[in-house]
Amino acid sequence: MNLDLQGQTVVRVCFDYAVRILTSRNWEMIIETEAVLHPPVGEPAAFDPESPGATAAHLVGLARDVITEAGAGDAGDLVVGFASGTRLTVRPDPDYEAWETAGPGGRRVICMPGGELAVWSGG
To answer: Which of 12, 47, 97, 106 could hold 52 in an S-S bridge, CB 3.0 to 4.6 Å?
Structure first.
């Protein structure tokens, strides 16, 4: 499923119990379970959103980067590519909502526990 985030610029990366990525068109991507950041050079780094450690600096580095692809697979996995060559992947969690995207007009996609996608098209 194409999440229609292509061409949007990351304007803010926030950390609380999750990693929140906000875009230039008022979309928010929320990562709530373990994810992997694949830099253009070097080894991929898995991180816990509640405590991203050294990966936090790389996540903040996504600010001003442009999203080139954003999609959800049939199993609920999230893949986001950026113009810098960085890729972000989030696999579904058996017990928790792994990620979600929310945009203007109430459009929302949530990866439910186990990988099923809940989709609201907005009003």
So the answer is: 47
CA–CA dist 121, 119 (Å, integer):
6
Per-residue pLDDT of the chain (123 residues; tens, 9 = 90+): 999 999 999 999 999 999 999 999 999 999 999 999 999 999 999 999 999 988 999 999 999 999 999 999 999 999 999 999 999 999 999 999 999 999 998 999 999 999 999 999 876
CA quadruple 51, 88, 21, 76: dihedral sign: negative
How many residues are present in the chain?
Answer: 123
Question: DSSP E strands: which ranges in the chain?
Answer: 10-15, 19-23, 28-31, 35-38, 45-47, 67-72, 78-82, 87-90, 99-102, 108-111, 117-120
